[in-house]
Every structure is written in structure tokens, then in C-alpha cells.
């Protein structure tokens, strides 16, 4: 069964961020991911991981001005220096926190330009970032995101992402396959998993119910079936990654809301939570 990591940017919203590590561990998760660590110093985050027996398996590189609507810098012409500074900062955090993967957000295609016009900048930035990350033994991920949640995002489809990984040609650049985004844009999830996972280019999965991004047992996707597909294909190709639970608990910020919605996870073998059996 795949191993699941709690996304602390979305789960446990009733708690302060630093208290979410303990909550995830109490619910049986053995690993966590989240959007950004940069509001905290490494010395604040590392004890939260160690004291709760958690692995840090993913976070994003700096996104630019998030509060102004920016969603990454990698495809933005004229922002290369800022992009590079952010990647070096992310790598530093990843080394201290023992995190093997960094998601490099592509960004929004600038107004007045099209995807092909900014593609060379994106490729150049990824090549540079992959070299720097490789020096510290880190993998970089790129993620297709649906155009409903983030209109104008550079990367939307699995085939686009895999073509870019091939073009960049770095062994430590992989695709973050978010099945929520993939269902909204493309569908045919089981066949996408069967096609792409054996390629060696899928570094991480994420899940959420479709269409409302709640628990994976709510909505139009049969995730129980897909977990079996991932398990089957992973066993065949030797994939040992994680599935990030990046969803909004249906009970929102109500105390205990996240935990109350984890029946879908409790029904799975304990090893699926990354916990020791």
C-alpha cells in the first residue's frame, strides 16, 4: 500500500502551524509535507519533526510574492536572479530538515506572453536548479496544476511535464503527480498512473477529493481503487515514494475536524501511514 504524508498547510487548520506536526503524528502519519517553511527558522522546524518521529518529504521553493498572486518564478523572464536566490534558500532548508524533494513552482504565464515565449526561461531555470540541487543530493519536482484553481499557470498536463523533464535531462528532476489536478484537467487516472509511474519520472503523488478538494473518500474519484493501482505498479517498477494528502478537511477549522475525517486512512494498513508496523 502506498505511504501517505500529511500536508500541514491544509490539514489541521484549527491548530497553529507548529502544533500540526504533533497532531499528524498522533493520527498515525509518519511523514509530512507543506507549502513553505520560510516563515520559520530551521531550528524551529527540525525539533517538530524529530520529537514526533516524522519525515519531511516535500515542500515548495519560494513562490515570489504569494500575497500578490504570484505562484512561482521559474517561467518568469527577468526574475532569474530572484529565482536562483530562492532555490538556494530552499536547498539549504531541505538539507537541514532532511527533505529529499523540493517542488519548483512554474508560475503564471505573464500577461501579453504565451507559454512558448517563456518556455526557454523555464527550461534554463530548471537546468540550473537541478545542478545546484544535485550537489546536495536533492530532487526537484515540477507539478501540473489545473486552470480552475490557478488560471494561467504555466504547467497543466502530465504530458507537458514529462516532456519538460526529458528536455531538461537531469536525473534529479521529476514530476509531482497530483491526482486532484490531473482528474480536473485530463481524467483517465488509472491509465496515467500505469503509463507514467514506470518511467522513473514520477517522484511524488498528491490526492484530494474531486471536485471540492476534500477528503479522498468524497467525490467522483475512487481513490481506493487508485491506491491499489499505485501499489501494483510500484511493486513492479520499484517505486518507493509518498502520497501527499493535500486536501481541505470537510469540517474546516472545527476542532478535531481533520482527525474525524481520517476514516479512509484508518481503514488502510498501518504501513500506509509511514508508521512502523
Describe, in short, the structure shown:
With 277 residues, this protein is α/β, with parallel strands linked by helices. It has helices at 20-26, 42-51, 80-97, 115-135, 158-168, 179-185, 189-196, 223-237, 257-260, 263-266; strands at 3-7, 31-33, 55-60, 101-103, 139-142, 173-178, 202-207, 242-245.
Report the biggest beta sheet as strand number plus sense, adding barrel if it closes.
8 strands, parallel, barrel
Radius of gyration: 18 Å
N- to C-terminal distance: 13 Å
The spatial strand order of the largest sheet comes to 1-2-3-4-5-6-7-8
Q: The CATH topology is what?
A: TIM Barrel
Overall tally of structural domains: 1
Q: What is the helix content?
A: 25-40%
Q: Which stretches are poorly predicted, pLDDT < 50 over at least 5 residues?
A: none
Proportion of residues in β-strands: 5-15%
Order of helices and strands: EHEHEHEHEHEHHEHEHH
Q: What's the CATH architecture name?
A: Alpha-Beta Barrel
Number of strands: 8
CATH C-level class is Alpha Beta
Question: DSSP helix count?
Answer: 10
- What gross morphology would you assign? globular
Identify the CATH homologous superfamily: Divalent-metal-dependent TIM barrel enzymes
Mean model confidence by pLDDT: 96
Describe the structure.
By secondary structure, the protein is α/β, with parallel strands linked by helices. It has one domain (3-273): TIM Barrel (Alpha-Beta Barrel). It is 38% helix and 13% strand. Strand 3, helix 3 (80-97) and strand 4 (101-103) form a beta-alpha-beta unit. It starts with a strand and ends in an 11-residue tail after the last helix. The model has no long low-confidence stretch (mean pLDDT 96).
Amino acid at each position: 500500500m502506498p505511504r501517505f504524508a500529511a500536508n500541514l498547510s491544509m490539514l489541521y487548520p484549527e491548530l497553529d502551524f507548529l502544533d500540526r506536526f504533533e497532531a499528524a503524528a498522533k493520527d498515525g502519519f509518519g511523514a509530512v509535507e507543506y507549502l513553505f517553511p520560510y516563515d520559520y527558522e530551521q531550528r524551529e522546524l527540525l525539533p517538530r519533526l524529530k520529537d514526533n518521529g516524522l519525515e519531511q518529504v516535500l515542500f515548495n521553493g519560494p513562490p515570489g510574492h504569494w500575497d500578490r498572486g504570484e505562484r512561482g518564478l521559474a517561467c518568469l523572464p527577468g526574475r532569474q536572479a530572484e529565482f536562483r536566490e530562492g532555490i538556494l534558500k530552499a536547498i539549504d532548508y531541505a538539507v537541514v530538515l532532511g527533505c529529499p524533494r523540493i517542488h519548483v513552482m512554474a508560475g503564471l504565464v505573464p500577461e501579453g506572453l504565451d507559454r512558448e515565449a517563456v518556455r526557454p526561461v523555464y527550461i534554463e531555470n530548471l537546468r540550473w536548479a537541478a545542478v545546484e540541487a544535485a550537489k546536495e543530493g536533492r530532487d526537484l519536482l515540477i507539478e501540473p496544476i489545473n486552470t480552475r484553481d490557478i488560471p494561467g499557470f504555466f504547467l497543466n498536463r502530465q504530458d507537458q511535464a514529462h516532456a519538460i523533464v526529458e528536455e531538461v535531462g537531469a536525473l534529479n528532476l521529476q514530476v509531482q503527480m497530483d491526482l486532484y489536478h490531473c482528474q480536473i484537467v485530463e481524467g483517465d487516472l488509472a491509465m496515467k498512473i500505469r503509463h507514467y509511474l514506470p518511467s522513473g519520472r514520477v517522484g511524488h503523488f498528491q490526492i484530494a477529493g474531486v471536485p471540492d478538494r476534500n477528503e479522498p473518500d468524497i467525490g467522483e474519484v475512487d481513490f481506493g481503487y487508485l491506491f491499489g493501482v499505485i501499489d501494483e505498479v510500484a511493486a513492479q517498477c520499484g517505486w518507493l515514494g509518498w502520497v501527499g494528502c493535500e486536501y481541505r478537511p470537510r469540517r474546516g477549522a472545527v476542532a478535531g475536524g481533520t482527525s474525524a475525517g481520517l476514516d479512509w486512512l484508518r481503514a488502510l494498513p498501518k504501513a500506509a501511514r509511514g508508521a512502523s508496523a
